[in-house]
Backbone:
């Protein structure tokens, strides 16, 4: 149990430190993540395992405690299982040897693609100019819709009946009348009357919404409000009866290049690296020296299908 406690108490801070400071760690005393008999799992093992994930997701993965711990635990578990397999001399099995060969080749192949991506970035195209060109050519993609910030109070019928509907509607009208008097904050009314399950946390605040974010009747009433503090008529939706208060309004606008520049450059870099790797892969696949025996492949597929059919009969 000592090892398990050590592992789970490690947390993400150490993991991220070693992930982001790989070169510095190599020259320092290595603090193991897990120790068990003659097996040790180190930051280098984590980095190696992380390299097996698509490169665009690695940084995000390394920022999540559970995912980091899951990866480290996976490496540990399979290292123990691998040692057990060696003790049983399973690596001498021809099929296992072939699997090991494929695993090595896959790792080397990924390393080659990673190098291609690094070399692509080293060529350092003018990403900002490319981003500006993309921005100018696709301005409609950077248009922000009109938004309103609203709060609401919802009154729900106690049951599915005409009487319950009428009672809920009448209570909603009463609450609206109180809200129109402006004698107390709308948030206080929400805390007192709203039947939204999350009202204690948000005090009726819905936040910013765009057209299409909510049900049509709620949306229409919200966007009809003009001045901050305006109160809507009672609005019926499938959820109940709403009283809506306007807290803010933003007109539709085009985002400036400065606002979207970093996102555009990141996207261009990702696309550029993928383009370089895909070109290399296509060059390999289209090389005239490559000879594919489709007849042999099809015969193999048919034999596998027949084998599966025989085993199930």
Residues:
């Amino acid at each position: 149990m000592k090892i398990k406690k050590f592992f789970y108490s490690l947390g993400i801070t150490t993991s991220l430190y070693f992930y982001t400071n790989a070169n510095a760690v190599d020259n320092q005393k290595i603090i193991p993540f897990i120790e068990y008999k003659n097996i040790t799992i180190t930051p280098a093992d984590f980095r190696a395992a992380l390299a097996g994930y698509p490169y665009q997701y690695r940084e995000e993965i390394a920022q999540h405690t559970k995912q980091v711990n899951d990866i480290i635990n996976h490496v540990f578990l399979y290292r123990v299982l691998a040692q057990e397999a060696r003790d049983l001399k399973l690596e001498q099995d021809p099929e296992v040897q072939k699997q090991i060969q494929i695993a090595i080749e896959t790792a080397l192949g990924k390393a080659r693609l990673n190098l291609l991506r690094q070399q692509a970035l080293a060529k350092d195209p003018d990403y900002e100019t490319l981003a500006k060109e993309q921005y100018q050519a696709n301005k409609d993609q950077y248009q922000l819709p009109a938004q309103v910030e609203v709060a609401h109070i919802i009154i729900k019928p106690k049951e599915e009946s005409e009487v319950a509907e009428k009672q809920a509607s009448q209570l909603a009208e009463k609450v609206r009348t109180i809200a129109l008097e402006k004698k107390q904050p709308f948030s206080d009314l929400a805390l007192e009357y709203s039947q939204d399950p999350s009202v204690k946390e948000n005090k009726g605040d819905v936040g910013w919404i765009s057209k299409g974010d909510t049900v049509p009747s709620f949306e229409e009433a919200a966007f009809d409000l003009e001045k901050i503090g305006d109160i809507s008529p009672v609005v019926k939706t499938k959820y109940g009866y709403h009283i809506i208060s306007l807290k803010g309004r933003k007109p539709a606008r085009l985002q400036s290049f400065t606002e979207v520049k970093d996102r555009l450059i990141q996207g261009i870099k990702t696309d550029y690296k993928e383009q370089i790797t895909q070109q290399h892969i296509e060059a390999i696949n289209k090389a005239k020296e490559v000879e594919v025996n489709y007849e042999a492949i099809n015969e193999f597929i048919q034999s596998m299908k027949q084998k599966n059919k025989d085993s199930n009969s």
